[in-house]
Write a structure and sequence with these properties.
With about 90 residues, the chain is mainly α. It is about 65% helix and about 0% strand. The chain is built from three helices and no strands. The longest helix is centred in the middle third of the chain and has 31 residues.
């Protein structure tokens, strides 16, 4: 995508070397630019942020109520599935 100064901004960030290498591997494998890979990663992050914040609030409330801690997940997808299940449960409570 060509840059348009009226619709884009250039942002410089510092990344750990392994993360930068992962971006390079991903962009090469998917035949995409670094910018596309980073934009997609940020979109996913911002889309998931409300769920992450809600899960944190719920974990705090659970701990405060003596219910123990919420589970720890090995992947974001596991956490997202858990959040979705908890939301469904909360909606069906009388």
């Amino acid at each position: 995508m060509p840059r348009n100064p009226q619709t884009t901004a250039i942002v410089a960030v510092s990344l750990p070397v392994p993360m930068a290498k992962q971006i390079e591997r991903t962009r090469k494998a998917e035949h995409r630019s670094r910018s596309e890979v980073v934009r997609d990663a940020l979109r996913l992050y911002f889309r998931a942020l409300p769920d992450i914040e809600e899960a944190g609030r719920q974990a705090y409330l659970d701990a405060k109520a003596g219910k123990g801690l919420s589970p720890i997940f090995e992947t974001v997808e596991q956490g997202q599935r858990w959040i979705a299940r908890e939301r469904r449960k909360a909606r069906h409570k009388p």
